[in-house]
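Morning!

This is the sequence you dropped in the shared folder:
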Amino acid sequence: MRAAYIEATGGPEVIRIGELPDRRPGVGEVAVRVGAAAVNPIDLYIRAGTVAMPLSYPFIVGCDLAGTVEEVGPGVTRFQAGDRVWGSNQGLLGRQGVTCTRAVVGEEWLYPTPANLNDVQAAAMALVGITAHLGLFDRGRLESGETVYVSGGSGGVGTMVIQMARAAGARVITTASTAEKAELCRKLGADAVINYRTEDLEERLRALAPEGVDLWFETQREPNLERMVSLMRKNGRMILMAGRAARPVLPAGPFYTRNLSLLGFAMFQFAPETQRRCAEAMNQWAAQGQLKPVVGKVFPLEQTAEAHRFLEASTLGGAGQVVGKVVVAIE
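The structure's back. Tokens below.
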């Protein structure tokens, strides 16, 4: 098989493209002819060595995939050859990644692909969609009629949060840096969009939600907890899912006296059964046209290093170029 892999951690330049041996699926495993693999910030951290994970070299990069089942191993009951599937959680905790022409994945990490999504779209919604669903519903306990605020509505997670929250009957407020990104957020279902470069975020949010925000979904790496607490409604919930090095100040007094909750989570800490429930809801919404993956930029397999450079510059470098997801098209 052809793969994008590393033999040591480092910058994007350590990514190699070459032939690696095919692997046959074992008990409970599925061999997938990969059509597309998404690129996520966690892929950058693992490749760079800034997040320690057990790596078996040569290590194939990437945790999200979509493709077609080629072969199933003993004990597999949910899939058969020819089925279209998507999945996430690969390249983590000792599992090999999936930016390759053929990947072997545990059955528990795969889900049927809705007929109205192609492989690039299905891969694009994988990690970010499961993350959004876990934050909104497992951790945030979102209810219809509540007000949700999500930062960066045109980003990978943000685009999913907007659509899922609207599908659940919530009112959604988000931020964007340009008129074009704001228009995308509105098309996805955002009720209000704040341009954080030209408008005062706190002033606008108070005007849009005078009683406060019920569920704050923070996607930025440097959360401002003092501002967040001041803008929350009583009994509100604040979600943190980014910012490994962040050490924000929590104003304890106004936090606890307003019955607020601060909830953190990492997607890969959740069991396959929990993530499958997220995927089933995502598939239903996608099939109904209520959840549309946003693909920002597509690279061929040979340019996987460039895909990493692009995402790194846009996120860690602050260029802000990414709208939706960066995806590597395998075939």
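Headline: The two ends are 12 Å apart (CA to CA).

More detail when I'm at my desk.
O.
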